[in-house]
Structures are given as C-alpha cells and as structure tokens.
Design brief:
Elements (H helix, E strand, L loop, with lengths): L1 E3 L7 H13 L9 H5 L3 H5 L1 E3 L3 E2 L67 H13 L4 E9 L1 H16 L7 H15 L6 E5 L2 E5 L6 E8 L5 E8 L7 H16 L5 H4 L4 E4 L19 E5 L13 H7 L4 E9 L5 H14 L3 H10 L17 H18 L37 E3 L8 E3 H12 L3 E4 L6 H11 L8 H24 L14 H14 L4 E5 L5 H9 L3 H9 L19 E6 L6 E6 L9 H17 L8 H4 L2 E8 H6 L1 H8 L12 E6 L8 H4 L16 E5 L3 H18 L3 E6 L17 H8 L4 H11 L5 H23 L28 H10 L14 H13 L4 H14 L3 E6 L14 E2 L6 E2 L17 E6 L5 H13 L4 E5 L10 H8 L2 H5 L6 E5 L14 H7 L6 E3 L4 H13 L6 E5 L13 H5 L6 E2 L2 H4 L10 E5 L3 H12 L4 E6 L1 E3 L3 H9 L6 E9 L5 H11 L1 H4 L3 E5 L10 H15 L2
Parallel strand pairs: 7-9, 9-10, 15-17, 15-18, 18-19, 19-21, 20-21, 22-25, 22-26, 26-27, 27-29, 28-29, 31-32, 31-34, 34-35
Antiparallel strand pairs: 1-2, 2-3, 4-11, 5-6, 7-8, 10-11, 12-13, 14-20, 16-17, 23-24, 28-33, 30-32
Helix pairs in contact: 1-4, 6-10, 12-13, 15-26, 15-27, 16-24, 18-27, 19-31, 28-29, 28-30, 30-35, 31-32
C-alpha cells in the first residue's frame, strides 16, 4: 500500500500555494512560515512511499497537446465515457522559471463528444485528488449512532444566554461535541492511535497527546471555498474553557491567514461537521497518520414527525436527533471499540457530570438542564406544579441568584431544591409545553421554557429579591410588576455616566493610595459600585421632586462619598490628609477625617431637578449613627410640614429621605440596627422609609460571615420591618443602578424602608496598614487576582461597542488629572503650625438677666385647659381628681412636680415652640404622675390638654406643637433618635424620659459619642433633654440610680448641663432656661420618684412668677424666714431627695448649728454662686458632702476632687458622708436600705 509522506495531510495544497507565493515574494507569506518554506520541496513532499517509507518510482505525467486539430462530428450515437487513467497524475507545480504549461482550456479530441470540457486539476484540487487516492489505501469501517440532541440544544441555550448577559462570546455545538470526543478518548485511548509501517513491520502508534483536527472552511479570492484542517494540540489536558479558547484561536488565525506549520502537523483524530449544511449522515475519508475521524450530522426531527406542529411535538415529547459516525482504521481499531466510543460520547452528552464540568468551567453559577425521562402525569397535575414552581421562585429565587462577585460559595452551583423543576415533577420534555400561569409577566399562558426564563431573569441573575415576607399583597404585586418584566438596558449616555462615576470612585482611591501611602482612609476599593448606586438613588429622589437626602454611614468609603456624592472639595480632603488645618478655623478637639460630615447640592445629569444632600458626622461605633440620622430627618420633615400633614399628602410629609449605609457584619451584629428598624413604622418615629445600602464586603475586620451571623443573609433582620430586600452583585453596576432606582420608587409609593444588600469585597485590609491574608488567605487569593469593577465594566462596554478604548482612557485620565492638579495646589498652601486644641466652652456663655418667670394668668390658663375636655369625652374616674387638683394648684399654689413640668411645657407652647416629648410610658408617666394624654375609657379616644395652648385666646395659632409619644422599650435607638431630632431642629424642645434612670445604660454609646462630645468633635450642637428618674428608695439596685457619676466624669468644656433639682419650681425654671437661653447643649436632669408625691416637695405660685432657676439653694428658713446663718458651724452640701430627709432630721433635732445647702446644678459647677453662698456662713468650720449613693458613685467621685480645687480656703478638708463604696448601686433589701439610710442621717448630724 501507499501513503503520503506529507505531514500536512489534506492541508498539503495550502502549503504548496504558500510555497509558490514565497518563491515570488517572501514578504507575501506570514514570517512564521519563512524558515520552513526555505527548505521545502514540493516534489519530495508529493513523492509516494511504499510500506517502509521509501519513495516509489515517479509516475508518468500525461501531457495534453497545447493545440489539437478539431475532429468532425460523428453520427449521433451514445457518447463514450472517458476512461480514468490507471496511473495517478501528479499536479504540475508553478515555478519561477517560465516553462510551457498545458493550457487550462480543454480542446476537443478524438473520441470526445462535442461540448465536453476537460480541465487539469491543479493546486488545491490536485492535492485533494492525491489525498483521496492515498486514503483509498486505508481499510476503513464506519460506526453510526443516533442520539437525542435536546439536552445538547437546551444547555447550549442556557450557556449562551449567560455569556450574552455577562462577558460575551458564544458556545457552538461543535465546541460541545469536540469536547465530548476529547473526553471520551480518555476512556478509549486506542481511538487516538494510527497505523504506520516502520522498518517494514506494521505498527500501532500511540501519540503522546490528543491533537484534535478541526475542518475549517475558508473563502477564497475567486469566490471558491477551501478546507483546511488545523490541530488543537494537547486537548486531553484542557478544561472546557481552555478548549473553547484554543478552538477559537485556531479558527481566528485560520480566517486571518495566521496559521503556522505547527498548526497543520500532528493531527491524531479529526472532527468534521457536515451537519451544518444539513447533511444527516456522512462517511468521511480517513487520512494517513490518523486512526479515526468523527462525523457529525444535522440535528433533525425524526422523519415521521417533521410534518407535525410544534404543539404536537411538545405534547408527544419528541426531540431532534443527531447522527455521529466514527470512521476508523480497521487495522488497529475494531468495530466494537468504535461503537463503544460512540456510546460513551452519547452518554456524555446526556450525563449530569459532563455539563456540570462545562458550566463550572464557564463560570455559569446555575445547574445545567438535566436529562430525565418524560413524566407521564396529566397536564392538570403538571399545571399545579408550575404554579408551585412560580411561587417557589418568588420565595426562594434569591438563593439561586448570582450575587457574589467572589464566588466564595463552596458548592458548584447556586441552587435550592425548591427551584429545581425535577423537584416539582417536571422535566426538560415539559419545557415546550404550554401551561396556565395566572398572569405571570402579563400573560395567562406560557411555555415552561418562557416561564423559567422570566423567573430566572427576575430573581436569579445579578439581583436576588426577598419580598414575600411582606404582608401586604398590594406591595408584593407592585414589586412583581416591576421585577417580572424584561429590563431595558441603560442608554449609551447613561452607561457612560455610570462609567464616569466608577472612574471617579476608583481613581480617587488609587490616588490616595499612591499619594498617602500607609495613611488610614478605610478605602472603598472592591466596593466602588456603591458610588454610582448612591448617585442613582439620589437622582431618583430628585426625579420625584423631594427636598433633601440625608446620608448616614460608617467610616469605610466615607471620603469617597464626601468627594463624589456630597461634593466636598478635594482640596479640603487633601488638606486633612496633610494635617494642614488652620487653627483659627478649627473647632474643639476635632475628629479624624473619615468621621466628618458635609453638605452639598446634587444636580440631575439627565433631568432638570436638583436636591440637597448632606452627610451626618459619625463615630467609629458602627451603626450608632442610625437612630441619629432617623431623628434628624424626622425633625427636618416636621419643620417642612409645619403642621401635621394628612396621610393622603404623605409625599410632601416625607420629602426628606434618610439614606443609610451599613457594613454586613455590623448590620447583622449590632443590636441598634434592630432597634432602629423597629422605629420605622411607629407614628412617633416614621420618616417615610429609609434607603438602606449594605456594603457587604463579606468580612468583618477579620471575621468571616459564618462566624458573625446565624442567618443566611446579613440583612435578614430587616424582614421585621416588612421591608423588601434586594441582594445585588457589586460587579454589575447597571444592576446596582436599576435596584437603587427601584428602591426609591418603592419608598415613594409605600413610604417604607427598603434594603439593598450589595455584595462586593474589600481589596485591602480593614485599614490600609493591615494584611488580611494572615487570617483570610482563601478569600484574598481570589481578591488578589480579581479585576476591578471599573476595568471589567469598561471592557464590557467596549466589547459591546458602546464606547471606544480611547474614550474610556481619556475619561479616566481626565479625572486623574483633576486630582493631580488639586493635590499640587494643596501642597503649596500656607503651612500652619500644629497647636493644642482649644476648648469650646468659651463660646457657650449663658446670657445674664434672662427671665424664666411667667405671668400668673398663664398658670391659670394652663390649669383651666386640663378641665376643658371635648364634648362627649369621658375622663377616667381615677384621672379626673388629678385634673381638678391641677386647676386648683394653678390658682392656689402647692404645685407638685408633674404639674410644674406641664406648666413649663405649656408656657413653651404659648410662645410658639415645638415640643417633642418621648420616652418609656411618657404620656401617662412611669409613676402615674403626668397624664399628658387622656384616654376615654369608653371608646379609646385621646385628648391632649396642652394642645389647647397651641391656639391663642383670640383663636389665632401660636405656632407651637406638642408631640408626645410613648417610645418603644428601647434606649440606644430611642435616645439616638431624640439626639438627632434636636440636631435637625435646634429650636425645638426635645425631651426623652427613661422609665427608670438606670435604663439609660442601654444608650451609653449615644451619650459617649454624641451627647457629651459631639460639639467638641464635629461642632454639632444639641439641646436634647434626658429625664432620668433617680433616688435611693429601697427598690433594689436596678431601679435606683441614673448614674450621676458617669455624666460628671464625661462632662468637660461645657459639653452639657447636669442638674438634680429638688423643687418643682426650680425644675420649671431649669426647663425654661434651657429652652430660652440660646445656648445649645444637652441637659441631663435626674428627676424624682418618691419625691413626686412628697408633700414637702411643692412650690408656691410666686416661685413660678417671681423667681428663676437657682443653681445653689439654701434652706427656706434662711432665704424666706428668720434663720440665723451665723449660728451654723457645720455645713452639709447635698443634692436631690435626701435634702428632705436631712431637713426633717434637723427640724426634729432642733440643730441650728447645721446648715443644709443644695447644689442643684452639678455641672457646670456654679463656683461663684457656691462661694458667695458659703461666705454667708461666717462661723462654718466643718464641711461635708452628703449623698445617699455609694462612695464611688453619685457626685462625690467628681466633687471630692473639684470642690477642694474650686474653693481651697473653705473646702480643702471637705469630708464625705454616704454609703460605703459598692459595685452595685444599692442593696437588694429594703430593710438593709433603711438601715444604711439611717446611718447617713446619723453621721450627718453626729
């Protein structure tokens, strides 16, 4: 037998053609061929070999005369068929030497019929002849197998749809079939062998690797098409993605004429696909050097069903078939092995594992379609299952969504059993069957394929939605109508705008990282998409014509938000990095740059509106700013409303939008989040819906999610507020922008909270000096090799042709240039020497000569309104005596504590003040003392007597508003909310009351981070009033102390006023002074419990009409009577309830030598007034501080140090009389309490 010695097989024609071009003009051939063609000999390549590879004798060339005499036509008779030559004809090869060649135009010769044309085959055609003749020497056989193509078709559709949505590209049937062949060869390596004679002996040659030959159709210059076969080398070691990349590389280089000699050589098994032109079954020729060639036929329905309708085909469960042929060298491969090989390919193309590997390689996060037998259940049964499937996707679709840009989930695919069609008794045979879908996507009937397409596009792509926990069907339908539809992509202009925001976000971080190496800034790298997301949300708020967006956020990404959302000047940010602050512009001790707030104005890019934007200051305590933001926004809303707005005008009422950013670990871990969410729908706290954005970088400092929460998502806590939750992939900016706009629309429609959970990552450590690989190595191996969002999105836009590479580079370069210019300007600014911070106390001087007293007629009017109940309103029988007593007090005196408080608040209302009074059981009062709101026991109607004071006697409104609410049982969020309210409306009287003073412990973070230090850190002023019931009455350690010691320890720089008033009138004047003095600082009042009903703790009318707040109070016997101060040698300084016990003991013992002086204002300490008062006692020799709190609590820990320093002449030797130092506030036994209390009194008068 003979085989060709050419290593190029059927590609020999192409090599010869390039050789001819090379001889004429070497530059016309790709340089990679030059070395090979320089030593190439067409004659040698074409020489046949016999058995052992030795050349055979050269065949005779048949020469046609250049000119032949014409032959007269013969009589009509059957045309003789020309006999084919028995000897192969060598194809003449063109050479540079001019040699006469036979003319290609055939001339009639003897024996031929007129009109017949003969043409010598040259070049490619001759090479084909030679190759085909050579292939006749190979004894081949062919195995044929038909297999179902439905699974192949459906999984290709799934894969291509995913690629279309993401990075682009396309998977062909040949990709899948070729990879199946390569995979099957691993099980049948004999199919990769070829036959050869070596030294005259037959050999089976096993190649070192699998080189799959691809038949590639190439168009020629003359319109003809040619076929080349190029090899994908080393296929057995490739995954599917590598295989596809190598396949596409070969095809692309073939189309571009870039193939090299190496690409043509070494084919071990070939794949040919005549099915692309409709051929169902072919037996290809096998070339030397190969053991098998696999042919792929067309995908067609069985012939008997090709006339059936699509509906009948689907009903019967008929699918297309594809025919595979294996043509093999029978010398080394047997028919059974070839048949088994095709059976293995058949099994692969129907197996779960084969498609699982392909989908995993392509990064497709969804399970492939599975091959299962058609379920014969009735259409009615299946329709019910389809309805269940729709409900499952609405409930659980988010569990299948591709939302993690890092793909850290250890499972291969995003899947839940409830979302698997197989779970519902449905198979791939049901995909083209029509079911009733009850209005899904606006239609009543749909194919299951279309149902799944709608549901997966809606719930399982880059956005996962949780909303079925919402109780209101209307809200669920609203979301379905907007989610279960085809989403239009943004316009090119919008895409460029999104890219510009990503450019700005990333360039800002990169710039700071480059210029300020090692400085902490808590960068946004890995989460830059939050900038276009916030921008879109604010833009949508502007589109709705709202007034303001107020942002609260932690420190991560804050500088980026300040620069790219709020519009804080870069120069100011860079100055803060430089530490170049002008002392004349500094305020207090200040704070780090990533805690500061700012204000700006947002102008729509694609609209005509603008909107105010502000960012509130925050501490590092994560989520502490949440309730503060809500309170501040509620205050702004109440200012805009002016009066209570009807529910139907809610859009106007809630025109200030709170936007809150969170970290994933903090959102799940910090209890204040739940407390704040609980406020969302409460009448006293509603802000019309907060836009929550969780920047979910999937790590908390170094703690992984599995160690930081017990829930599936960090946002599960938000379900308590009936809020929809959108989980979105931070690597898809367009999805993030769409979600942001939808969230704002939902908020505006239903005035409820919305939560966006943007999954992203943290490029660096918790701060820029931290190395996260020590604790989270697996995560950071992924992050270190991950492309940034801006780069990926830019490539996607360029790939889609939306922008050019130059446009993308110019936009980024322009932004970087702006930053560089500002940076250089800041570097050149005037340098300021660093100086110690100055106290803010000097700016807080209380105005002198202020009048807090009121006219007697006002007291009478306030008393009258308590009995001026509406017609038909029934006062509770136990409350009516209280109201009658109050009217009596207003006229006759002996005003108790509760009524004194109402007198102060009522006087503010007549002056047009807004009063917000909240707390635990505040409307009635913990101790049944206030009754600010009356409840009709017969019908539950409410009446607030003080509301009558918001109208003048002549009927005109005063402008005052009395907003009194019972708060939820919360301290952290409740106190934070009131602090924020007082910041948002500095002119309002804002009070919060604890049920018992020690309950304020739950709000310690707000006290530490905002109330006591907000002014010094951020210049943030607040007038919030905390009312903390305090007093030792034997009720145990947990209902005793408001923790005076803590507030005094925190007090400095005039940060707040701390008072423990002992008379109703002094409490009245304290509140009046706080509301009128114009100095904005918090007021902490330790209010009484048992003293509320102490007959001695009452005040006369003149105390309200003639006096003012007295920070130091002497005994009435000295101020209002004839007591002789000169007799006092023993001075007892004290505060609060114990004064009345000391006074009673003094009266009982008749001790004129003892004087009791009350310090009503504990901080700031009234030093001058205290000194003047002590000077009134010329013979005083002994000074004691008397308190009922333990020695380590109450005022003593502070006063024991400050009193001797303040008045060294008198109080250097001051002594303490109190309980012993205790770890708890008091004893748990009322009897022990009484003994201890008696000891204090005995020692005081000892």
């Amino acid at each position: 037998m003979s085989t060709t010695s050419s290593p190029f097989g059927q590609n020999e024609w192409l090599v010869e053609e390039m050789y001819r071009k090379f001889r004429v003009d070497p530059s016309s051939v790709d340089p990679s061929w030059h070395e090979f063609l320089a030593g190439y000999s067409p004659e040698a390549a074409a020489a046949p070999v016999v058995g052992n590879g030795q050349p055979a004798s050269r065949p005779t060339t048949a020469v046609v005369p250049a000119v032949a005499a014409p032959t007269p036509p013969a009589a009509p008779k059957p045309t003789p068929v020309p006999t084919a030559p028995t000897t192969p004809v060598a194809t003449p090869v063109a050479t540079p030497v001019a040699t006469p060649v036979a003319t290609p135009v055939a001339t009639p010769v003897a024996g031929e019929a007129v009109g017949e044309v003969a043409q010598v085959l040259r070049g490619a055609a001759a090479a084909v002849v030679r190759n085909m003749n050579a292939s006749l020497e190979i004894p081949t056989a062919t195995s044929v197998r038909a297999m179902p193509a439905k699974l192949l078709i459906d999984n290709r559709v799934v894969a291509n749809n995913h690629l279309k949505r993401t990075r682009g590209g396309k998977i062909s049937f040949t990709h899948l079939l070729g990879f199946a062949i390569v995979t099957a060869i691993k099980k049948f390596p004999n199919m990769n062998r070829h036959f050869a004679e070596i030294d005259g002996k037959p050999n089976s040659v096993a190649p070192a690797q699998t080189n799959l030959g691809l038949a590639i159709d190439l168009p020629g210059k003359d319109g003809k098409r040619s076929l080349v076969v190029a090899a994908i080398k080393g296929c057995e070691a490739m995954g599917f993605a590598q295989f596809v990349a190598a396949y596409e590389d070969i095809v692309r280089r073939a189309r571009d004429g870039k193939l090299t000699a190496e690409d043509f050589a070494g084919v071990t098994i070939s794949l040919t696909n005549p099915g692309t032109i409709g051929t169902v079954h072919s037996v290809p020729r096998l070339m030397a050097g190969q053991g098998a060639i696999i042919g792929v036929g067309a995908m067609e329905l069985p012939a008997e069903f090709q006339g059936a309708s699509d509906e009948r085909i689907a009903e019967l469960g008929i699918g297309k078939l594809i025919t595979l042929t294996s043509t093999y060298d029978h010398r080394i491969i047997q028919g059974a092995e070839s048949g088994d090989f095709l059976r293995t390919i058949h099994e692969l193309l129907l197996s779960d594992d084969f498609y699982d590997d392909i989908f995993f390689e392509l990064g497709i996060p969804y399970e492939p379609v599975r091959w299962r037998t058609d379920n014969p259940d009735s259409p009615l049964d299946k329709n019910a299952r389809v309805i269940e499937l729709i409900a499952a996707y609405r409930n659980r679709g988010h569990l299948m969504a591709d939302i993690d840009p890092l793909r850290l989930d250890k499972s291969r695919f995003r899947m839940h059993p409830d979302l698997d069609v197989l779970t519902h008794g449905l198979t791939l045979w049901d995909l083209d069957r029509v079911f009733k879908v009850d209005g899904l996507a606006g239609q009543q009937y749909k194919k299951l394929r279309d149902v799944l397409s709608v549901l997966r596009d809606a719930y399982c792509r880059h956005v996962g939605v949780e909303y079925t926990h919402i109780l209101e069907p209307e809200q669920q339908r609203w979301l379905q109508d907007r989610i279960e539809v085809r989403h239009d992509k943004p316009t090119v202009a919008q895409q460029k705008y999104i890219l510009s925001k990503l450019n700005a976000a990333e360039a800002f971080e990169t710039f700071l990282q480059t210029k300020y190496v090692g400085q902490k800034r808590f960068s946004l790298e890995g989460a830059e998409t939050v900038i276009p997301m916030m921008d879109a949300a604010i833009d949508q708020c502007a589109e709705h014509g709202l007034d303001e967006v107020v942002i609260g956020m932690p420190h991560r990404g804050r500088l980026n938000v300040l620069a790219n959302i709020v519009g804080k000047p870069y120069s100011q940010i860079f100055s803060e990095f430089e530490g170049n602050l002008n002392p004349s512009q500094a305020h207090g001790s200040g704070d780090v740059k990533y805690h500061l707030g700012a204000n700006g104005n947002y102008i729509q890019m694609f609209g005509d509106n603008d909107i105010a934007v502000s960012l509130v200051a925050n501490p590092s305590h994560l989520e502490a700013v949440d309730p503060v933001l809500e309170g501040l926004v509620r205050a702004k809303q109440d200012l805009i409303d002016g009066v209570e707005v009807p529910a139907e005008d809610a859009a106007r009422r809630f025109s200030v939008v709170p936007m809150m950013m969170h970290g994933d670990a903090a959102f799940a871990g910090q209890g204040v989040v739940a407390e704040t969410l609980n406020l969302a729908l409460l009448g006293g706290y509603r802000t019309g819906g907060t836009i929550h954005i969780v920047v979910n970088n999937q790590i908390g400092f170094t703690t992984a999610p599995e160690d930081s929460r017990s829930t599936e998502y960090c946002t599960d806590i938000a379900k308590m507020a009936d809020a929809p939750i959108f989980h979105v992939n931070g690597d898809d900016p367009e999805a993030c922008v769409w979600v942001a706009r939808l969230a704002v629309d939902f908020r505006q429609t239903f005035h409820k909270d919305v939560v966006i959970d943007m999954l992203c990552y943290r490029r660096r450590g918790h701060n820029e000096g931290d190395d996260p690989s020590m604790t989270n190595p697996a995560m950071y191996q992924v992050i270190d090799t991950k492309r940034g969002t801006r780069k990926a999105y830019t490539e996607a836009l360029i790939g889609r042709g939306d922008i050019s590479m130059k446009e993308a580079e110019d936009a980024l370069r322009d932004y970087q240039g702006q930053l560089e210019q500002v940076f250089n300007e800041v570097r050149e600014l005037e340098r300021h020497a660093v100086e110690p911070s100055e106290s803010v106390e000097a700016a807080q001087m209380i105005p002198r000569g202020m009048t807090t007293a009121v006219d007697k007629s006002l007291l009478a009017r306030i008393g009258d309104v308590h009995l001026n109940v509406p017609e038909g309103f029934t006062v509770h029988p136990r409350v009516r005596p209280v109201l009658e007593k109050r009217r009596e007090m207003a006229y006759e005196g002996k005003v108790d504590w509760a009524f004194a408080e109402l007198l102060a608040l009522g006087s503010f209302l007549t002056e047009g003040k807004l009063i917000r009074f909240t707390g635990q059981d505040t409307r009635r009062g913990t101790f049944t003392q206030r009754h600010a709101v009356l409840i009709d026991p017969s019908n539950g109607a409410e009446f607030t007597p003080l509301d009558l004071l918001t109208v003048n006697p002549d009927g005109t409104p005063t402008g005052g508003r009395f907003l009194v609410y019972d708060s939820p049982l919360s301290e952290y969020a409740a106190v934070g909310f009131e602090y924020g309210y007082s910041v948002g409306n500095p002119e309002a009287i804002v009070l919060w009351e604890a049920q018992f003073g020690d309950f304020v412990n739950g709000a310690q973070t707000i006290i530490d981070e905002f109330i006591t230090s907000g002014e010094a850190k951020w210049g943030q002023l607040s007038d919030v009033i905390l009312l903390l019931p305090h007093g030792h009455e034997g009720q145990g350690p947990d209902h005793t102390s408001g923790r005076i010691e803590r507030f005094l320890q925190l007090w400095a720089e005039g940060s707040m006023t701390v008072a423990l008033p002992s008379t109703p009138a002094n409490y009245f004047h304290l509140l009046r002074r706080h509301g009128l003095d114009g100095v904005h600082r918090p007021l902490i009042v330790f209010t009484p419990k048992s003293m509320l009903r102490n007959k001695a703790a009452v005040s006369d009318i003149r105390d309200f009409t003639e006096r003012k707040f007295r920070s130091i109070m002497e005994e009435p016997t000295y101020t209002d009577g004839d007591g002789d101060r000169s007799k006092a040698t023993r001075i007892l300084l004290t505060s609060g309830k114990i004064y009345y016990e000391l006074e009673a003991r003094k009266a009982k013992d008749g001790r004129d030598d003892v004087a009791i002086i009350r310090i009503e204002q504990l901080a700031p300490l009234p030093r001058r007034r205290l000194s003047v008062t002590l000077d009134e006692y010329p013979n005083a020799r002994e000074f004691f501080w008397v308190q009922e709190e333990p020695a380590n609590q109450g005022a003593w820990p502070t006063f024991g140090l400050t009193l001797p320093e303040t008045l060294p002449d008198k109080l250097t030797g001051i002594k303490r009389i109190s309980r012993r130092a205790m770890s708890a506030p008091s004893s748990g036994s009322s009897k022990v309490h009484a003994v201890e209390q008696q000891e204090i009194l005995d020692e005081a008068f000892g």
